[in-house]
Specification:
- With about 350 residues, this protein is an alpha/beta fold.
- The chain has helices spanning about 25-40, 65, 100-105, 110-120, 150-155, 155-170, 175-185, 200-205, 210-225, 235-245, 270-290, 300-305, 325-340, and strands at about 10-20, 45-50, 65-70, 85, 130-135, 170, 190-195, 230-235, 250, 290-295, 315-320.
- The strands form three sheets. Strands 9-8-7-10-11 form a five-stranded parallel sheet, with helices on both faces.
- Helix 6 (about 155-170) crosses helix 12.
- It has 13 helices and eleven strands.
- Helix 12 links the parallel strand 10 and strand 11 (about 315-320).
């Protein structure tokens, strides 16, 4: 495929639509970042479509509530019934959510590779004749490398995403005001800690014990005078344990799901928009902390690192690990999926 002319004129008659999926906030933002890079490279306008109701009122694009966009044209929602769209799975259904289309197609057992092939364009292909192209995930980032600016394409993947964050996105004025209010209330250096403690995360990616978090916090406290410890977690019981051990640990008030359940998938959340705002406030606050303890394979943690200006020697990254039995079970499942 040809290499794109970087930063060419954006065409207003061809569009990239980035759909939200039933994933956490970090996954969604990272998918949008890949979309922004693709849109600029392929000279398309973009519409990040978060109207599915997971993070706010259904039909309202809350992406535009939380972020401001730079360098590419963020356009209007596409017509629902158009057939001029790639991939073919979205023809006549462009106004629907990823989850809705997947259910309409019979909700087959989830296979991410097949879902990417079915519901997302090939990010490595720049020239589609279709007026509308659709993507929904960030896993094809490597396909964009050859088309990125020379000073960017050789960077590690996470640094490319960080470059994309600072190039294309910034928080809305409302979100900036919330972050500044929280920071103003603090005194001295702040250590940010992201603790992921759900059954879903443990099953899919592994576990980090609370003791491991405590050990990481204590290592920082030995070398640095810390005024407050900011805790971002999805588990109210874990937050209580951290605050019991560290008198200066704090977290803004928010709604929690039952301990162990992911907040963004909870069916009883009283206000999805407030839930999303709280999550973005947490990740933005983590990014503003002077020290950061995060998780290697959590998109929420990764998003905080993308946004953060904290030096590498002030970052502690913990690795989630599955038990030996779960690792072998995952290997068996992967081999079974390939044979299918």
């Amino acid at each position: 495929p040809r290499r794109a002319a970087w930063r060419g004129a954006i065409r207003m008659d061809q569009y990239l639509i980035v759909k939200g999926s039933r994933t956490g906030l970090g996954d969604r933002v990272r998918a949008a970042l890949v979309g922004f890079m693709y849109a600029e490279i392929s000279h398309r306008s973009i519409y990040v479509d978060w109207r599915d109701g997971m993070y706010g009122p259904e039909g309202t694009n809350v992406f535009e509530t939380f972020f401001k966009v730079n360098h590419v044209a963020h356009t209007q929602p596409p017509p629902d019934s158009t057939q001029d769209v790639a991939p073919a799975a979205w023809r006549g259904r462009l106004g629907k959510s990823m989850d809705c289309v997947y259910v309409e197609d019979g909700a087959p057992p989830w296979n991410r590779t097949e879902a990417v092939n079915t519901y997302s364009i090939d990010i490595g292909r720049l020239e589609y004749p279709d007026k509308y192209c659709v993507a929904w995930e960030f896993t094809q980032l490597e396909k964009l490398r050859p088309h990125l600016p020379p000073d960017v394409r050789g960077l590690p993947a996470e640094q490319i995403e960080s470059w994309a964050w600072h190039r294309y996105l910034e928080l809305s004025n409302e979100m900036i005001a919330l972050v500044e209010k929280l920071i103003t209330a603090e005194q001295g250096s702040t250590l940010g800690v992201h603790i992921r403690a759900t059954k879903e995360f443990s099953k899919d990616k592994g576990e980090i014990t609370l003791i491991s978090y405590f050990e990481a916090i204590d290592r920082v406290l030995k070398k640095q005078s810390i005024g407050r410890i900011f805790v971002a977690t999805d588990n109210s019981e874990i937050l209580a344990e951290v605050q019991q051990k560290y008198f200066n640990a704090f977290a803004p008030p928010k709604w929690f799901a039952a301990p162990g359940d992911p907040i963004h998938l909870a069916g009883d959340c009283p206000d999805n928009l407030s839930m999303a705002r709280d999550a973005l406030l947490e990740v933005a606050m983590l990014a503003r902390c002077d020290w950061l303890i995060s998780i290697d394979n959590s998109s929420f943690s990764i998003l905080a690192r993308l946004m953060s200006a904290v030096r590498g020697d002030r970052r502690v990254i913990l690795t989630a690990r599955k038990s030996r039995f779960k690792r072998w079970l995952q290997i068996f499942r992967n081999k079974f999926d390939k044979k299918k």
